[in-house]
Amino acid sequence: MSMDIKQIQDLIKFVAKSGVNEVSIEEKDFKITIKTNQEPTYVTATVPTPLPAAAQPAPAAVTAPQVVAEKAEVADSSKYVTVKSPMIGTFYRSSSPDKPSFVNVGDEITAGQVVCIVEAMKLFNEIESEVSGKIVKILVENAQPVEYDQPLFLVEPN
User: Fold this and answer.
1) E strand spans, the chain
2) Of 81 and 28, which is predicted with more confidence?
3) CATH of the domain at 109
4) How do strand 89-92 and strand 114-120 relate by DSSP bridges?
5) In whole angstroms, what is the distance from residue 133 CA to residue 114 CA?
């Protein structure tokens, strides 16, 4: 699968509108990762197969510093456990709009504790933490669509 610049731009627009934090597509000779955080959208593309110089405009220069920053971020968060969505649906931080959030950054949680709800086809599924610890970061905005296996929370285990 090789993508032209128009397909990549369309994918970036789709990701930005959907509210998803990160999308990765990986084929044997092509990998693209799009990350958003309601801040600038970053695109990292690595193409191991050699391309003629004309086919690869300057993105290589833009990609290099991005990758270094990404690796530093991964190393920093390696001590954390990620709570991921077990399904595709809509992420909710509380059981209803007038109720308080199940968890907030800094909260201590225990394994089995409900941390959020993912609504799929009008069914509200309580998502429980598999780990005890402290909520370090909430990775999804309330009422945003989430994908299967998408990270929802970062937890510092006890």
Assistant:
1) 22-27, 30-35, 42-46, 81-84, 89-92, 108-109, 114-120, 123-128, 133-138, 144-146, 151-157
2) 81
3) 2.40.50.100
4) antiparallel
5) 13
State whether 94 and 57 are in the same domain. no
pLDDT value at residue 7: 77
Distance, CA of 101 to CA of 137 (rounded, Å):
14
Tokens of 145: 């669509």
pTM: 0.52
Total of domains in the chain? 2
The one-letter code for the residue type at 66 is Q
50 in Cβ contact with 96 (< 8 Å)? no
Rounded to 5 degrees, φ, ψ at 97 are -55, -30
Residue range(s) defining the domain that contains residue 31: 5-76
pLDDT band at 72 (very low <50, low <70, confident <90, very high): very low
42 and 88 in a single domain? The answer is no
The number of beta carbons lying within 10 Å of the beta carbon of residue 153 is 25
Give the DSSP letter string of 106-127.
T-EE-TT-EEEEEEETTEEEEE
Q: Per the structure block, which two tokens stand in for 18?
A: 């959907």
Structure tokens at 15: 């990701």
User: Residues 83, 155: contact at Cβ < 8 Å?
Assistant: yes
Supply 2's token pair: 């090789």
